[in-house]
């Protein structure tokens, strides 16, 4: 599977990196990290991207201005995409068809190619504008899967809660995992 992963500047960008770390090695990931995400990662967790993802040979990292990247073309045949976390700015651009960087261009390509796309917005509460944008995208077949915790799998730590979220996104992408205890 070829998977596009976009990390935007919404708070919680580290969760996007953790998602990548949990990916099975047989999945080839094409990662775009926005400038704002890099700032968020530095401010929230003092994380530098290259050192965090250096051991993964199945990961290809692009800057948001690398519009020549393979994921900017429908002929590249990427299978699925997730934007995690998805900032409200990126959500609005996706809703209106603005393709001014590699993240929104890859989204537009995946949409026109009718591929599976997940947006994981990180915001609370949602404004009426954001809710309308999410509804419009949902009607286009985009899966809106926000950072919403559940407690039935008895998470007790932040690490377990994050694993639960990643597991739910993996479920939506049909990626096998054992990141949380399923309901019995």
Please supply descriptive tags for the structure shown above.
single chain, 184 residues, alpha/beta, 6 strands, 40% helix, 17% strand, globular
Query: What are the low-pLDDT stretches, counting only 5+ consecutive residues below 50?
Result: none
Separation of the first and last Cα atoms: 29 Å
Secondary-structure element order, as H and E? EHEHHEEHHEHEH
Q: Just name the CATH architecture.
A: 3-Layer(aba) Sandwich
The biggest sheet, with number of strands, parallel, antiparallel or mixed sense and barrel status, is: 6 strands, parallel
Number of helices: 7
Share of residues in strands: 15-25%
Name the CATH class.
Alpha Beta
The count of domains is 1
Task: Assign a percent range to the helix content.
Answer: 25-40%
Total beta strand runs? 6
Tell the overall outline.
Answer: globular
Summarize this structure briefly.
This protein has 184 residues and is of the alpha/beta class. The chain has helices spanning 13-22, 35-45, 49-52, 88-96, 102-112, 128-139, 158-173, and strands spanning 2-7, 28-33, 59-63, 80-86, 116-121, 143-144.
Structural features, described:
With 184 residues, this protein is α/β, with parallel strands linked by helices. The protein has a single domain, classed as 3-Layer(aba) Sandwich (Rossmann fold), CATH 3.40.50. Helix content is 40%, strand content 17%. Strands 3-2-1-4-5-6 form a six-stranded parallel sheet, sandwiched between helices. The model has no long low-confidence stretch (mean pLDDT 93).
């Amino acid at each position: 599977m070829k998977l596009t992963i976009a990390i935007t500047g919404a708070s919680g960008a580290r969760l996007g990196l953790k998602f990548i770390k949990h990916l099975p090695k047989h999945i080839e990931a094409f990662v775009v990290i926005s400038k704002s995400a890099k700032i968020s990662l530095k401010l929230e967790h003092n994380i530098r991207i290259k050192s965090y993802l250096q051991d993964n040979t199945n990961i290809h990292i692009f800057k948001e201005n690398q519009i020549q990247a393979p994921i900017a073309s429908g002929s590249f045949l990427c299978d699925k995409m997730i934007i995690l976390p998805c900032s409200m700015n990126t959500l609005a651009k996706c809703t209106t068809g603005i393709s001014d960087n590699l993240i929104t261009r890859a989204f537009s390509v995946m949409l026109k190619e009718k591929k599976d796309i997940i947006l994981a917005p990180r915001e609370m509460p949602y404004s009426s504008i954001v809710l309308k944008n999410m509804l419009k995208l949902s009607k286009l077949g985009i899966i809106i899967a926000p950072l919403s915790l559940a407690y039935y799998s008895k998470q007790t730590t932040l690490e377990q809660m994050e694993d639960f979220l990643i597991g739910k996104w993996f479920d939506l992408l049909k990626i096998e995992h054992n990141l949380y205890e399923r309901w019995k």
